[in-house]
Amino acid sequence: MLAVRPDSPDVEQWEDTKMTDAANSEEPTAYEPMPVPDTFVTGVLPIEDLGGLLRVTLYADAHDQRGAVDRRIVSRLILPRDAFASLTRKPRPASPLESAAGVH
Which end of the chain has fewer CB atoms at under 10 Å, N or C? Predict the structure, then answer.
């Protein structure tokens, strides 16, 4: 669940709301203090084992003038091994707030 921090100077009220939302949901609650851009990817390179962490390297295919495919790495994620399973959960629909903001 993506939670947007309300424009309120009362941080305690925000924390109470965040904790209530988290208690009523199986998904972790997070907020975006500043916009984070979406990154389009077309594939994933082999996942690297870094001990207790995994590195997921994402790429996007681009075509050059001859039509050859150029694979460009666009992002790398490093995450704990136990968080990796959450990447394979069934996707949820975007909330109306996220859709209106262009967040997916």
Answer: C
